[in-house]
Design goal:
The chain is of the alpha+beta class. The chain contains six helices and 14 strands. Helix 1 packs parallel to helix 6. The radius of gyration is 18 Å and the shape is globular. Its EC number is 6.3.2.6. InterPro entries: SAICAR_synt/ADE2_N, SAICAR_synt_PurC, SAICAR_synth, SAICAR_synthetase, SAICAR_synthetase_CS. This is Phosphoribosylaminoimidazole-succinocarboxamide synthase.
Length: about 250
């Protein structure tokens, strides 16, 4: 497929995606790049066909979530790397859901890697690279006027719903959803919508059938930790998703 974004004005370029304008001011094009970053962009590189794989994974997972009543900004996927999406004002909070202790949670708390978290944790991080995306409390969010109490309750409820749907689906794919990051935005009508992406860039995914701590990793931790076979890990996630979705319901 050709890239529709080439004829449109670039509005913003981030670490993993580029946002383009369209003829409709309320519709944007999201272009998925192959660039990879870690540790607040201190480590940079590229993962072969990452943009294609992440666009496809996000498309399928957003479709699955839509069937379960989760509303997203996705309108349609128009090429291997591009989506038409609703323009939203991004809430400046990353919503992180943790089912199993890993990554920064282990470093900050001393919890052993792999500790099951019951109930799952829902955390908020301030989207600010200059400050290192710090973990925020509810009171700090209110003091900074980043979101209202009602919005926070909505964010938690939607994050928990997404977690339930995706955890069950990934298990059917032989994958454990360890933790993941979500972003949300508000559209012109004032509706809160799931935005950004859901992919191995934003999820920590382990092969449920692999006991080895390094071999089980299927996400961007392969890039962060120099485990090798990064592109293969991403492709395996996509392949398992497609295989499971092809199963008769």
């Amino acid at each position: 497929m050709t890239n529709a974004s080439t004829d449109n004005q670039k509005l913003y370029e981030g670490k993993a995606k580029i946002i383009y304008a369209t003829d409709d001011p309320e519709v944007l094009i999201t272009y998925f790049k192959d660039d990879a970053t870690a540790f607040n962009a201190q480590k940079k590189g590229q993962i072969t066909n990452k943009g294609v794989v992440n666009c496809k994974i996000t498309t399928h997972l957003y479709g699955l979530l839509a069937q379960k009543g989760v509303q997203t900004h996705l309108l349609e996927t128009i090429s291997d790397r591009e989506m038409r999406v609703k323009r939203v004002a991004i809430v400046p909070l990353e919503v992180v859901v943790r089912n199993i202790a890993a990554g920064s949670l282990c470093k900050q708390t001393g919890l052993p890697l792999g500790t099951l978290l019951e109930p799952s944790l829902v955390e908020f991080y301030y989207k600010n690279d200059d400050l290192g995306d710090p973990l925020l409390t509810r009171d700090r969010i209110f003091a900074m006027d980043l979101a209202s109490a009602q919005q926070l309750d909505q964010l938690v409820a939607q994050a928990q719903q997404v977690n339930q749907v995706l955890s069950e689906f990934f298990i059917s794919c032989g994958i454990t959803l360890v933790d993941f990051k979500l972003e949300f935005g508000v559209d012109q009508a004032g509706q809160l919508l799931l935005a950004d992406e859901i992919s191995p860039d934003t999820c920590r995914l382990w092969d449920a059938n692999e006991a080895d701590e390094k071999k089980r990793v299927m996400d961007k931790d392969r890039f962060r930790q120099d485990l090798g076979d990064v592109a293969e890990g991403y492709q395996t996630v996509l392949s398992r998703i497609l295989t499971q979705l092809a199963q008769p319901s």
